[in-house]
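[retry 2/3] Radical SAM core domain-containing protein: previous attempt timed out, resubmitting with same input.
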Amino acid sequence: MSIEKDNRIVFTLDLSGRFIFYTDGNATYRRSLENKFLRIKHIASRRIVEQLSEDESREIAEAAYSFLRSTYDDLPQDLKDSVSEALGMNYDKLSMDAAKIRDIYGGEVPIVPPDQYFPVYVQAESGCSWNRCTFCRLYKDRTYGVRTLEDFAIHLHKIKDFFGKGLSARKSVFIGDANAVNIDQKLLLQMLDMVMEEFNLPIFSFVDAITTQKRKSEMQFQEMHDHGLKRVYIGLESGDPNVLRIFNKLMNVSEAINLVNKIKGSGINVGIILMAGAGGKKYYKGHVENTASVISQMDLGKGDIIYISPMYEYEDTEYYSMTKDLGILGAEEKEKQIQELKARIREEFQDFNGRALEAPIAPYDLMEAVY
Ligand code: SF4
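[retry 2/3] Radical SAM core domain-containing protein: success.
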């Protein structure tokens, strides 16, 4: 539900009183279930996203709930009933709520795709079955494992209890962690059925271009589609063989093209995730040109989407040690590369297919990908 005042202040929260969005006229703030507060501002044509410190987060949470309490008397009775649980909410209670969700997932959820910030996250597997990309530290501390059906059933019930009435604010289910579609097909289909039975919402997941191609056929994707899987996200990052090699994404670009085309053939939509700055200054041109060429060979249409985020080079990754040789692009250079990628992908797709690319190309920031 959303409460708005003077066309300026808007507070959106779920029926359990959890903060979702707050706009104070200057910026918009989003809270993740793990209690991370993001400030989102638009300056000129740029979208600037920053994660707030704990003190700043507390200040915003208190401002939002004070706003709610100050407007309560003027609300219609049905809305009063709906927000009553939220009246006693504050930053400390939100922190306790976040501790519960970390407990359910055995730690923080490392990432969700750009349009899946508000799913019900369910963990069919823990970690990444590959876990060897040089730039990635998402699942380094997580031992890979697949849940049993019994354990998965308990997990789903814990999640349902956690959300309570707030479940109505969730519009999809995301099955994690990194490559849940790789799970043994029979077990996976049973898990999809259990998710549908509990939540009855469209299901989304990641695939990885390295191992999924070898493990799943188009027919198996069709079965997943029949059992509720609507879209999968693939962290392609780049279509340049040199960049993929230094990322240790051990695949041939034709495998990534085949993977996407067989997923599309099954009726499931795809989200392709690219990174601006991948391969640094050394591979700048190859990254733009080869990525456009690879994307043009994918059978993308209206229900698909391409996301481009600036790359974050973390010092504690193997990739970082290579950046001395590669050179790191600054923020403006990455922004410029995003624009170049967008233009080249559209041109190349048109040239290769004789039709315009209908899938939107959306910039986003990995920092926003918090659960
Ligand atoms: S496949 Fe994805 S999650 Fe796994 S290591 Fe590579 S980038 Fe990270």
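[retry 2/3] Radical SAM core domain-containing protein: The first helix runs from residue 54 to 71.
[retry 2/3] clearing retry counter.
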